[in-house]
Amino acid sequence: MQSNSAHQETGHRDYWGRHPNETTISQGEMQLSPSSNRVSVGKVQIFLRPMEFRLLHFFMTHPDTVHTRENLLEEIWGDWIVIGARTVDVHIRRLRATLQPFGLDKHIQTVHCRGYLYTGNTQSASPATSIN
Q1: How many Å apart are CA 40 and CA 31, to the nearest integer?
Q2: Domains held by the chain: number
Q3: 33, burial (CB in 10 Å: exposed 0-12, middle 13-18, buried 19+)
Q4: What are 58-75's pLDDT values in tens digits?
Q5: Which residue in 42, 58, 107, 130 has its CB near the most CB atoms, within 10 A?
Q6: Tens digits of per-residue pLDDT, 10-30?
Q7: Assign residue 7 a region: left if phi > 0, alpha if psi is -120 to 50, beta otherwise?
Q8: Considering all CA atoms of the chain, what is the largest pairwise distance in Å, rounded to the nearest integer?
Q9: Looking at residue 40, which CATH number applies to its domain?
């Protein structure tokens, strides 16, 4: 319990539990609701695994910034979990595959030798930077 309140005091999001800001996040037709752990596009609800939901929430609340694998591991999984950096790639691939039928996979771009970039502007995503 103490670590949870410590995260809230520092403004760090608790991706293992509830988010301090329960406000629904909207981007175009996509809506993400932290309080219900639901994502929808228009009237269609999208099923996301817990880790993919956490990644999408993190990306939507931290857009237009390149995040390294190590940064994502620390922010999403926490520093006490011992997993490989390539685990992030697996979850990014799953998230893109889920968003692809809606044309939203282009929001998540791979920045070669740097990490991943989430942008709300799909026109800036080019095939060269958006690699599964």
Answers
A1: 5
A2: 1
A3: middle
A4: 999 999 999 999 999 888
A5: 107
A6: 344 455 445 556 789 998 899
A7: alpha
A8: 45
A9: 1.10.10.10
